[in-house]
Amino acid sequence: MTTWKQQYDEAVRKQKAALDAYQAATDERAQALIAGVWELGSQAAVARELGVTKPSVNQAIRAYEKKTEKRSE
Fold first, then answer.
1. Contact, 66 vs 39, CB < 8 A?
2. Within 13 Å of residue 20, how many CA atoms lie on the same side as its CB?
3. What confidence score (pLDDT) does residue 56 get?
4. What is the pLDDT of residues 52-67, one digit of tens each?
């Protein structure tokens, strides 16, 4: 039988794993968008290809670049 504390600790562990997976997927998405810009020539072209807005592409790329700049400091 598990205690409430063990249940809590397990839930926290799962929550952290889910957050880590979400962050990794977000980074991969931004990297794919950057590759798309290289291939298609612009963020607008990537947005058109994906059927999303250019600001959403720009925001994802900028957030990733900001995150990776902090890591390199």
1. no
2. 6
3. 98
4. 999 999 999 999 999 9
Can you read off the two tokens belonging to residue 3?
């205690």
User: Token match 């963020």: residue?
Assistant: 43
Give the pLDDT band (50/70/90) at residue 26: very high
Q: Which amino acid is at 69?
A: E
Count the residues in the chain: 73
Under a CB-based contact definition with an 8 Å cutoff, are residues 50 and 60 in contact?
Answer: no
CA distances from 10 to 22, 34, 66 (A): 18, 36, 32
Question: Which amino acid is located at 64 in the chain?
Answer: Y
* Long-range contacts (CB closer than 8 Å, 24 or more residues apart) made by 65-71: 67/27
Cβ atoms 37, 47 nearer than 8 A: no
